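Subject: complex prediction, re-run

Hi both,

The earlier run crashed halfway through, so I resubmitted it with identical inputs.
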Amino acid sequence: MIISAIAQGLLWSVLGIGIFTTYRILNFPDLTAEGSFPLGAAVAVTAILFGIHPIFASLLAVIAGMLAGLVTSLLYIKGKIPIILSGILVMSGLHSVILFIMRRPNLSLLNQPRLFDTFSGLPNYFDVVVVGLIVLMIVISLLLGFFYTDLGQAYIATGDNEKMARSFGIETDKMKLMGIVLSNGLIALGGALVAQNNGYADVNGGSGIIVIGLASIIIAEVAFSNMKLGERLLTIVIGSILYQLLLLGVIRLGLDTTYIRLFSSAILAMCLMLPQVRQKMRLGTLIGKGEEF
Amino acid sequence: MTTVLQLEQISKQVFNESDRHTTILNQINLTVNKGDFITVLGGNGAGKSTLFNAITGSTSVSGGQVSLKGKHLNTIKEEKRAAFIARVFQDPKMGTAPRMTVAENLLLALKRGQKPTLFSRGLNRHYDYFKSLCETIGNGLEEKLDVPTEQLSGGQRQSLSLLMATLTEPDVLLLDEHTAALDPKIAVRLMELTDQIIHEKQLTCLMITHRMEDALKYGNRLIVLEKGSIKSDLNEKEKSALSMDDLFHLFERDETPAP
Ligand SMILES: Nc1ncnc2c1ncn2[C@@H]1O[C@H](COP(=O)(O)OP(=O)(O)O)[C@@H](O)[C@H]1O
Ligand SMILES: [Mg+2]
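This time it finished cleanly. Structure:
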């Protein structure tokens, strides 16, 4: 059971990292996530049912998520609609898109190939752990590589001090667009992975996932302060696993799963209200060395 | 003498809730020559910052034309103008990226106006250069190259902002009360540093200040802004003949110039 929770945590952390790239770096609450996550799931599962290899099906999910992010960012940047509303509009619209893709509210992957099959020789759940680790290694090293390019630095500066970034010639609108696109690509990848692990995609699979993503970020920040960017990404993975273990513990304690969501929100709300966490939110980060998140 | 910056009939109007417009800038004409160091005086709300915003493009103008080295800027976005026009804000928090380190901020400044690429940022290559730059300031900034700027003192932040603004030798440097938020002693030091950098790099600069003694002491030209118009424009000769008393009289009686 614990291995299962760790495996889940690894897969869900892709979502957390995706949300982190906008929510923490750009200071952007992008609600598109609640639509791009089930979109990724729907695209991956549908593609697999069409006989496409799970790897390519997962990549298709990433592209779909990026497109969703593109729509949100255009509504926000070109349409001048506030980011929260842009996200809500796209999230809501994606519901229909997902139904269009799957042709029904949910779709099963029963007896279909999955990304984890390559390692099916491993004991139960370990295949998921290995695939999760590989995907995370790729995602985190790509992201870190990106953040330390000129473009990545311009992106971070945009989130840090937009006015200053513009005064040095950084095209902040482009940076935001890039961030929202990138973030939703990652979130959709998270959706694709979780769906393959669950064995199905559901049109309502995105409801409440922002809380799960934020929980992994906030738990990471409460447990580990003063992190450099690379370390911060790793701690989100740990935060995500801790969150899954927490859920497991709560279920073990006999809490009715009906209340799981209420419980999650309450935990997150309490974490957010902790004064030192609040201060961290405001400053983005605290003392120490280097770029901290 | 070559003209660097030219403002022709620059106007800025805004509409308030009752749809009546207020004029913030009123037909401003200004020709700035290469190497000019112009101090800008004016009471609160005279339109000084708005004038700078019109030059940088962070606000659109209602009429008139801004040109840089003969090139019309009106249709050019703020981000593009930033390749040639640098700015230091009054608020020390505004000038740097708080979560990025001093060295990282300097690197951003070094790449002013360049399209950011997917090449590695190459911080190490410039690290020694940044260190030696910071050493010239003499306030310990060189010890803090790897520290996020949110942990710097106001004076350190502001001298870093100045360093960043002048690193690539912009065509025009705009200083908007950049010493106003600092302790008097530190403000004096920053002002000396400013003057030194402007002369060493032979920059063209407009400096808004609320300190009359700075307006008199520094620069080769002085303009006084009032209610969105240029009330006086004194050249080097006129400026050097000016006393503090004369300067007080340039302000209207009902306007209280900051001490
Ligand atoms: N975007 C704006 N909308 C409405 N009024 C503005 C705007 N920007 C500036 N103002 C007004 O224009 C006047 C000049 O402002 P500003 O240029 O900041 O003055 P200064 O820098 O000389 O103190 C002030 O009265 C200010 O309230
Ligand atoms: Mg002002």
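The CA atoms of residues 166 and 236 of chain B lie 24 Å apart.

- K.
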